Predict the 3D structure of the following.
Amino acid sequence: MTGSPLAAIQVEIIPYHPSLAVHFKSLNEEWLNRYFSVTKEDLEMLEHPDKIIEQGGCILFAKAGNAIAGTCALVRDEDHSFELVKMGVTARYQGLGFGKKLLEAAIREGADRGA
């Protein structure tokens, strides 16, 4: 059999729950530290994800089995406008379509919220 055994793993997109806040922070810090650096503004958002929810946005996660493999957030800009922020998939699950699934779910969520 060829290919990665990870390729057969199904991805489930799940909404934010406070118990997942640690994953929102760690997944984004992994990505930011790999390609950029974590700024004060990044830390503010990563350490207080409930603010995204309170302001009408949402946070989504890609779950692979029992592992949280990726995340993204929609931040409400205006009544009918959102910005996609803090999207990342951990290195182990990159290249398997998890990011695409997160993006598709974020687009649907934005549309459901009137974007």
Observations:
- The chain is about 35% helix and 30% strand.
- The two ends are 44 Å apart (CA to CA).
- The chain has a mean pLDDT of 93.
- Helices lie at 21-35, 40-47, 50-54, 98-112.
